[in-house]
Amino acid sequence: MKNYLVVTSGILALSLAACAQQDPTSNAEDADNLLVDDWQQVSELAAGQKVNIYMWGGSENINRYLDEWVAPRLKEDHNVELNRVPMSDSQDIINQLLDEKSAAKTAGSMDIIWINGENFKTAKDNDLLWQEFSGQLPNFNDYVDQNAPDIASDFGEPVEGLEAPWGKAQFVFVHDKNKSENPPKSMEELAQWVEANPGQFTYPALPDFTGSAFVRHVLYETTGGYEQYQKPAADIDDLATQLEPMWDYLNALEPYLWREGETYPESLVKQDQLFATGEIGMTMSYDPILAASEVLKGRFPESTRTFVLDAGTLANTHFLSIPFNSSAKAGAMVAINEMMSPEAQTAKLSPENWGNLTALDLDKLSAEQQQAMNDVELGAATLSLDELEEHQIPELSADYIEIIEKGWMENVAKE
Amino acid sequence: MWQKNKPYLLLLPAISVIVLLFFGGLFDGLLKSFGYFPAIGETRFTLTAYTALLRSSEFWESLELTLRVAMLSSLLAAILGAGIAISLFMLNKSANSGGTQIWHRLFQLPLTIPHLVGGYIIVLLFMQSGFISRIFANLGMIDAITEFPVLVNDSFGWGIILTYAWKEAPFVSLLIYPVLSRIHRSWRDVARVFGASNWNFIREIVLPVILPAWTIATFIVFVFTFSAFEVPFLIGVTYPTVLPVYSYQLYTSGTLADRPEALAVNIVLAVLTVLLGLVVYYFSKRWNVLKGWD
To answer: SUPFAM superfamilies, per this entry (chain B) (predicted)?
Structure first.
């Protein structure tokens, strides 16, 4: 009995000690070398490392692409093991990093994180990210247009090499062409459509990422365009008054929404479910090819189509980054570089895998690589890449998002 | 010495983990709710978060909803649970067959389902375009799925209440049943001799016997539903939400400045839960629930 006690206490002590143990590969000296070594040395260091990628896990397609396309190739070609850790919201990633930082944890479990512009600003302001690594990646140097505004900054925040572009997204509306033949082309037409089809439209409750993006379109169209919001929120005098038309529009819409606007779907997943079962006639996505892959899976009806607004829809680049306390920085660099390769990006474009636009500059690819990209069948539900391109408008700076999300609760949900 | 302290020493590993992780987290939350947050350079102690909270109408509406949902859920679960337990007990006493075992298992089934899954099942079954609504529409009982009554994501919270009632009733019956099974068979015979019907027997003997355990079980359900998150998140409405969801919304709204307020909500929840726990403890002491009654 006594022995048993000693053993259990011993195990406990050991496991607690293990939590606090330092990982020898993560000391600062090695990490700094990674930023100046040539790529060959980085690859050698990476071999045999296990890399944890923390990312939003709400999409089956994305998860499958990572687990079945990216991970096996990384293992095969570079002997890097990729382990995907699903998170319900990228904010949780930042929360965890903050906690690790306050606990002075230098050997963290996250090696790669997939965050959005709003989180990037928080992470950058609080020094949660490692250093300027993207310039070290061969695929970044070879295939990316580094001066393009949507690569050089993320939601108005200068990237400065702290993250590497992984793909591009553009907001589209999703509808069933049997239910609405001529989809609305502006927010004004949308309001008419909603009034004519009560109960057929809704949007996910903010702070849901997609719901929040929908409201930003309303902001642009009801308050006179996007140009004025390219500067920080603090520079606009009397912002509250300027936002009034947006709240008025949303409140005027409310009685005609699904369930009379008494409640909103708590997530895009729920909203897509409502669309799939035919309870509503329209949904939305920040991913222009996602609807096509939902049709492929048989979740959305064959008659599903997407559309954009005449004044354009929001487009942005999404990035991968390495946290300050990653225990496998070399492995993380190799994995991110691999995810930016033309082959991985082409596979990512296909609705069968994920259906996400590439972050690479097509002009920098070889003729065969361009051909491979253009040959990807995007599905009947997807707009042509040209049409998407012509209707892109930039995101606004991240500090507005917080104001809008708080204001929505106050001015719309509560009313 | 060793003999005397042995049980405590054996419990030590488990207790240290609980103290470290649970109370550690709680203490950290308490510090942050007072605005102490070194990671963003805040090292002063203030009550700002609490005053802001008590002044906001969201908090009070949320508290009202939380109390309403928890009370109705626990009452419904209590009535259902007692009903199940007494029915099983009467069934056992009148018939000596293996059939009662099946009934037992059947009623315990909801215990094995996690709350999150239970909540989602309810959504899939009862939303207007859900399984049941479609069956009705196909049978021609309703013309369109929109005629199906709104049972989930309703502003009163019926969806949440019904989910909890269904989930917690077996738990209540599980706590009551052992007490019931101590009722001697002879008592029933004696009651019969004195001309008591089944109903008299239940009212005069069964109910008084189970009352202590029943009250405690209901309190436990109340405290649980008071601070649970997943079912209201799935089945509730956008506004108002119950306190745990409200705290989550504050916590994930993207700004670190809201953190203290989000954690203040949690601390308020924890304090209320502890107070309720003390009430339960007081009653259980008074009624000697934990002692046998031979």
So the answer is: MetI-like
d(C-alpha A270, C-alpha A208), whole Å? 11
Domain spans in chain B, listed from the N-terminal domain onward: 56-291
For A116, the closest chain B residue by CA position comes to: B254
What does the block give as tokens for B123? 């959504």
Q: Cβ–Cβ of B252/A274 closer than 8 Å?
A: no
Residue B252's closest chain A neighbor by CA?
A91
A198 in contact with B, Cβ within 8 Å: no
Host domain of residue A332: 27-167+318-382
Asked whether residue A369 falls in the same domain as residue A408, the answer is no
Q: Which residues of B touch A (CB under 8 A)?
A: 6, 9-10, 12-13, 16-17, 20, 37-40, 58, 127-130, 145-146, 150, 153-155, 233-234, 236-239, 249, 251-256
- Is residue A2 situated within a structural domain? no
To the nearest whole Å, the CA of B13 is away from the closest chain A CA by: 6
- Calpha distance B36→B29 (Å, rounded): 10
Eight-class DSSP state of A283: E
Is A301 in the B-facing interface, judged by CB distances under 8 Å?
Answer: no
**Does A264 touch chain B if contact means CB atoms closer than 8 Å?**
yes
Architecture of domain B56-291 in this structure: Orthogonal Bundle (1.10)
Q: pLDDT truncated to tens, each residue of chain A (415 aa)? A: 445 444 444 444 444 444 444 444 444 446 678 888 889 999 999 999 999 999 999 888 899 999 999 999 999 999 999 999 999 888 889 989 988 988 888 899 999 999 988 889 889 989 999 999 999 999 999 999 998 888 988 988 899 999 999 999 999 999 999 988 899 999 999 999 999 999 999 999 988 889 999 999 999 999 988 888 888 888 888 899 999 999 999 999 999 999 999 899 988 989 999 999 989 999 999 989 989 989 988 999 999 999 999 999 999 899 999 999 999 999 999 999 999 999 999 999 998 888 889 999 988 999 999 999 988 988 899 998 778 888 989 888 878 988 898 899 889 988 7
Provide the whole-model pTM: 0.77
Same domain, yes or no, for A175 and A287?
Answer: yes
Determine contact: A101 vs chain B, CB below 8 A: yes
Spatial CA neighbour of A217 closest among A201, A229, A205:
A229
**Residue A1 domain-assigned (yes or no):** no
Distance CA B234, CA B250 (A): 17
